[in-house]
Amino acid sequence: MRREALTVLAGLALAACAGSDRAVAQSGETPAGAMWAVNPAAPGPDLPPAGRSLFDFVASVERDGKRVYDIPFPFVALVKRVASRAGCKAADPCSRAVLIPLGRSLQRTAASPEFFRYPRVVVAFDGEPEHGAFPLLKDRLYLGYQERSNVVEVISWNEAGGRFEFQVVRDYRAGGASRVAYARRALCAACHQNLAPIFSRQVWEETNANPRVAEALETARAHALGEGAKRGDARRSIYGVPVHRGVDVPDAIDAATDRANLYAVHQRLWQEGCGDARCRAALLGAALQLRLTGDRAFDERAASWRDAFLPAFTAAWRAQWPGGLAIPNPDIPNRDPFATEGARTAQGVALSHVAARFEPLAPRPPLEVWTIEQPETARRVAAGLAAHVADADARALDAHLAARAARQRPAARRYEAPCELARAGSTLRFKCVPDDPAMPRAIRVAGRVDLAGAKIAGGEVGSLVADGAVPLEHLEVVGGTLDEVSGRIALHLASRGMHARLADGARITGVALRWKAEDVARRGTALEVSARATVTAVDEFAPVRAALAVLAEEPDGVLGAKPFGRARVLAPLFARLGVPVREWCCEDAAAFPAAEPESEEPPIPAAGPAKDLEPFYPLCASCHATGDRFPPNFLAGSGDRVAAAVRHCAPRIYARLAMWRVLPDAREKTPMPPASPLPRARDYPPPAAVAGLERMAAAMVRSETGTEPQLAHLLEDGYERLRPCLPEGK
Ligand code: HEC
Ligand code: HEC
To answer: Which of 351, 359, 500, 719 lies 20 to 30 angstroms, CA to CA, from 427?
Structure first.
């Protein structure tokens, strides 16, 4: 136990050196023996390992063959520009936004004391345009803007790097020269432990979906705008975000962050869950079948899935994650900023106080643990990969496969089953169940047809089961013919703007029901009859299988152990199939100048006024030596500044270090350094190194007050009453 604790401490110290490769050495195991799919203690290098963020693509323009940032101001213009680059129309802007005046982000103190006048705005791009989707921003781009600090925080997917990038736009203001830097991931990872966006659980009381927050925002706005605004709509909208909104907006953002949370998991399973390209070809085939069936099903009985995917995947899983794979948790607790202790009487920056139990720095247990014994694990991987295939890609593939089959006319398959057919008024219902479900080509199908006279006006196939696959539900009836005299109805089906397809990608070319006129029984106006259903399907997926098989044989090809990039993988596949050329985007970063990192972490001082503070650097500098005043940058700047700032902050530093000695549930504030990069922190005593730092901080406090500090005494009036960490303006 002790030895392990020390190892964990060493891992923490290393993790604190941002970007250090050695941090990867930390095991990333949960107490229950599962491995974290994402290990915040090993956040990776700050700069993209390959490619660039999608934000860089949409926030830049090409000039003389080079890409340069071009970031419109104000914020509304930025959001609009990004949406139009992604092909989203004004009527369907593909994004959602909330206002968070008193939040828990890194911008929590910036607006003090005018929190309601200058709320943080958070925008998530969660939609996909009808056409194009180059770049695909859905669930992949998030912005956080705070006017008072002239900062836009960015979390953005990197197509080539297969990870979310963390960026900060500074000096973002009218007439400013905005600068974009890739942030220190170790700092972001302290709260974004999933290395992805995070969001509160329902009912999102920090956002303007809370009527009290909305009211306070509106009052502050009206006050600032003066008399003239009493009538106008100006006070009803801030940064283009309507102030009074229901929970549907934060709910949608929450859903987007939940989906994004799994991206790193999918990427890991694509690269490490399959040992070879054949396994990945089978997985990609399943993902494409899912997209072609409108995310309903894929062919789990296919030879490729059973022979090329499942055995390889199972073996790789058992070897690497015998205790399961722990899925990171993107959800932080709901928090009502008005309900927190003392909030009603708090003034100024103290209003932004966040109690330890709501603090996103606190380590979160896994959302769930996936194991290979759970049958849904393999299915989840296919579904996860399918999320990286845009609707537009699925529609293009669907149209291409149908057109190709129309030329090549592959043989049709026929399925049959006896049915009961009943008509009441203009609605016809049918239910077909095979006599012997074990028979090949047996089908089970049930649905409803809406008639307008002798015409078919619509309807739905509620459920269709063929080849023992999972039921395909809610296929649309989009046309057909009815011939009551000879007893025949033929239906055309569709699915979400595409052809209706079976799990294996075969197109359902028709559903026909036949009956004999003499069998029709009349009961008043209702009709009942026994009929026979024939469902025909054409295997249009064969060319995809063939193309995947060729790609799987390419040495170092697109199905190698690299991140799954939409363009990198789909472009060569679509080219091989002959799907019309498309403007693939956002993998090739050649036209960009070198990416800018956040200012370097300062070296540990070897001499000068900050020399004595040397022991603080390994554990604190990654987060407290940035160019920003939050979290307080007491280790940034000249030796003189550092010495003065640490002394000024000493009571707070002492309190946060001493907090390690308080039992977790009794802590008013999160201890420092935060335990979040340590999955097992809860089980360990405070690290020994922290005790040394605590003694140093205690000595500083004592030299001022003449007495030894006592945590309980110091916090008597609450943590927020302590002298602010940084001296005013320095
Ligand atoms: C102290 C905890 C904390 C740290 C550290 C932190 N964030 Fe966040 N961040 C949050 C919280 C909480 C939210 C969600 C609520 C909100 O936005 O107020 C958030 C939200 C965001 C969002 C909006 C999308 C989302 O996740 O909901 C962006 C963008 C963002 N952060 C960027 C960053 C970047 C870049 C860094 C590193 C420089 C960073 N954050 C570090 C707490 C933090
Ligand atoms: C992984 C990032 C990270 C590391 C490492 C870290 N901190 Fe922090 N620290 C934060 C964040 C984020 C906050 C702001 C949220 C809060 O107050 O809990 C913070 C807040 C603080 C505060 C409170 C400031 C205030 O205004 O009340 C003190 C003091 C502090 N840290 C001291 C330290 C010391 C000392 C170390 C090293 C032993 C350290 N921190 C290491 C991220 C970090």
So the answer is: 500
